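Researcher: First entry.
Model:
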Amino acid sequence: YLIDAATQQMARGQVDQAIASLTEALGEDPSHARAHALLAICLRDRRRLTAAAHEAQAALAAAPHDAFSHYAAGLVHEARREWHGAEQHFQTAIELAPDADWTRRALGHLYLLWGRHREAQPWIEAACAADPEDAANLALLAQWHLEARNTTRAEELAREALRIDPHESDALVVLGYAV
């Protein structure tokens, strides 16, 4: 129950409430990998990167073969600008969840941040192919097109992402630059 509540709180941007829910959940079950992984993401969002890294390691210790634990660890490494560590965890997440779009999107996003635009494209396109109705996938593809100076296509994709989810903030940012 607390993990589901925290996930919903995170989706609504209520990070502090999610941290409280996850802390309570871990008080009941200190080895719950998903709770540690979610807490790592929340702490990353609050820029508490040392604590986030600790929680990501706890998630991996509890579930070393869990794609989401590797995804969370990758996000923490990315926030710390530890590109190779992030890349390794995202690639492991892809191996563990080969059909998931979110693992591919994460690796594509990392490559964009890292300045490896050519390597980003196939991962972003693979995420879009896996779930073409995911606004976050379309927003990232729009960002890729914007950085490739294809503003017309970037605008089209950003508008499509916003049609699916009017609150997709990355699409709003791309749209602001594209028009």
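Researcher: Second entry.
Model:
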Amino acid sequence: RGQTCSQALSVAQDYAIANNTQCVYFPRPGYAVGTQINITSPVRWVGEPGSYLTALANITIASVTASNNTFEDLEFVGIGAGSTKAGLVLNNSHENVFRSLYIHGFYNGVDLMPTTVAPQSSYLNSFYDSRIVTNSNYNINASSRTNFLRLYNTTFGGTSLIGLKYKGPSFGLEIYGGDC
């Protein structure tokens, strides 16, 4: 189902950042991801309808510690039963925009995490026209200090244990057209 791309994606991402294009494009159909991809500088991941990244093992596809990133038109596919990882992790990452994502088959679809030292947080993150469904535990796990999370026309239901966990102290949750 596509070519193995973890190392190639990391190289492409580093090149995009170094050359100030800051955009990594994923044409259809899909890519097999064998190791977690760490995003430590702002970047834009852009797919097209039908573009997917499939986890080859029990991994997180993208772990984001940078802020001001954009992800568009991508599907993240986990290993399904037995997964213990989130598909997308935001750790002290803020002001990101996620548009037309489909995340499924992980333990948690999205983990929004603070660093261990307050007042760090993942804040002002926005999901538009996305489906974060059918993950085994939580579809969206918004840990403490996840501030001003926005979900617009985003589905976070399905067969998961819980669709959205929003743990305090966190402030500002906006849901417009959401479905659980």
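Model: Note on the second entry: Helices lie at 6-18.
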